[in-house]
Write a structure and sequence with these properties.
DNA-binding; mainly alpha; homotetramer; disordered C terminus
Chain lengths: 211, 211, 211, 211
DNA sequence: AATGAATGAGACTTCATTCAT
DNA sequence: TATGAATGAAGTCTCATTCAT
């Protein structure tokens, strides 16, 4: 009994320490990038020694993977919560929720970049997280199409187009290349408008793509 | 006379060598990223010694800037050539021309990432190249609106939405997360369709965004 | 308590290691000169790895500055100890104490040379150490003049002449260009004799400088 | 005939080019020191290419030796010219003539330093030049002693003491540690005074070294 | 004879990782 | 379990020297 409790406490302490280190790593990685970040910086930020880092993770690389995994998990949770009866709301949710803070955008870009250099990051970030979002979006689009509230456009393409746009905006924001004269909310509405009036069922019969 | 020819030849040789080195650098950087790339790899790829690298560029960093500059210049040329009487054509051009090859997409992602860490890359890539594309797109959208062939949507927003989408698709492609069951041409058409039927003037009066 | 002891021991270990490295650096620098010395040699001489060097000093340059600082400190201590009631003793002290060993003479020449190339060395060596010696000498000469035991010669000039002679002898020794047929003690006496019979009050009224 | 003239012209051209390069080398070496000087700098200063340097000298090291040789030769000439009937004049000549310009002082310090690292420089500078000066001084002191115008002090010691002082002053000047409130002429007189009233025969019988 | 681009050895420095305390 | 000093591999960059033109 007492032993179980002890083990429990110990495990919780270990988990807490791991989280503390991962949080520090996420901060440093997102700011500096993986290669430029040093284990010394991460240790300082986590307020532990470099040696301790290696008691919880086998290598700097595993730290990155840990951050990616945590990010993917968090994403999964959020996606599960997204309500999307309404398309506009779904898009707004995706845009707003995803890249609200600079840190989130920077992490996004970090993984985008590191995916190409680290197969584990690719696994957790691209396969698990990104595809999950895309597939979820796809399902909702299929639902809306079935409901007759959206034109019968290929849902695979539609979902990817939406995702691409959201990702692109994250990058534009991060590079300081976005729209400054509009509020994020207004921007969300406008983008939704652009998409909607092409994605949903058209009344106007003549509304065909011809430019 | 003979001297002039000599100087001419010399200058051409220097320019050629510089281009040869930049090309090697672009390849290595695009594959490995800036930090992971080594000057030895670049030298090997360029088939010169490491010392020679430094006869033409003062540092590894300047090599990256050189690649960014060349990329931005090439982009500027291509943009100038884009014909865009027709919106669909313009979008197809932007999508197809930009990220045709893997190398181009990788360079794009390299600069996207390095912009955050190198003020010169940000200058050449984000300020010069990216903003140039966005502004050009904006002008064309304004033109189409004036012609009555497009809904009067804020051109700033519209241009950025298009750019974000294109950038996002580049990333999706590069991560192997795109649509495999569709040909690039078909994909281009579909994306154009999605955008068009929201950006152009709507006949159907009732077609408002409500989800 | 135990912690304090631990910190104490740690600090002493660090100080010892630093001293060990500085000593090695002093040896290598004094033998090879700053530019010719390599960090590898210094590390080998200190019996540590090159990396360890950089745990204690930020650069090769700071290693040199460290040596200069230590040298200046040591000099200051010695100067404070020089007894100079008697002029002959003072001169003998200055000559003998300063450049007794080859290593000290070589360090002296190293700093003499490096002062022109390194502003910090100039600071520590010329400003702190050398000027301190000269000023101290000046004070003692003034004292002897006041006591009527020395001719009223400009103490600024006299102190610098003495210093110049001592420095010059150090160089002559180091270059193997000095007097081999005389013992150091005998030499000291003779030089003192030369100086004395010009610096102290002259009884012989006719003894004026004319050659 | 014509051929001889041609050879003559050719040889003179070569000598001139060599001198031009040596002069540049002297400037750069005296400013930067041997190790810090680059062949590129020397070539630029001499207004020739780096390749040309190697047509006239086999290595950077030989450039230094060449400069040392030229310096020693120049010194020999000057020494031959020094008139020294009068001791004061001799000393003044030695002090003033030798280290008039900053460049000469810097060269002096360069050779002082490099003698320890380069056996050829040691040969030309220490053996040839410095010992020549010292020996010449010795001879003149012997002469003055024989004339009864100087006390019978060991001429070996006396000559070295004078040389040491002069060298020391050169260093003090170069380090900006000398006397600013006195003109060079006045300084020379004062130093002469100090030396004289110890080196020449003393009338005052009681004037013995006792401190 | 002059040029200067090319070379590559070797220097300084960084930093992930280890391990004795 | 935590620490942080020690390590050494590896990276960037410099520069004396060579050699084809």
């Amino acid at each position: 009994m007492a032993e179980l409790q002890l083990n429990d406490r110990r495990e919780r302490r270990i988990a807490a320490r791991k989280a503390q280190i991962l949080d520090a790593a996420a901060q440093v990685f997102s700011r500096q990038g993986y290669e430029r970040a040093t284990t010394r910086e991460i240790a300082d930020m986590a307020d532990v020694s470099e040696g301790t880092l290696y008691n919880y993770f086998n290598s700097k690389r595993e730290l990155l993977i840990g951050v990616a995994k945590a990010y993917a998990d968090q994403l999964a949770e959020e996606i599960a919560r997204v309500e999307a009866e309404d398309f506009g709301e779904m898009l707004a949710n995706l845009m707003a929720n995803r890249f609200r803070t600079g840190r989130e955008r920077r992490l996004f870009m970090l993984f985008l970049y590191e995916s190409r250099h680290n197969v584990d990051v690719h696994q957790y970030y691209v396969q698990d997280a990104m595809h999950r979002i895309i597939n979820e979006t796809e399902k909702r689009i299929i639902f809306l199409i079935e409901q007759g509230r959206m034109r019968p456009i290929d849902p695979v393409v539609a979902a990817r187009t939406l995702s691409a746009t959201i990702m692109g905006f994250a990058a534009l924001f991060e590079l300081g290349a976005s729209v400054e004269h509009t509020s994020p909310e207004k921007l969300g509405e406008q983008v939704t408008d652009i998409f909607l009036n092409g994605l949903r069922t058209q009344d106007g019969a003549g509304a065909r793509a011809r430019g």
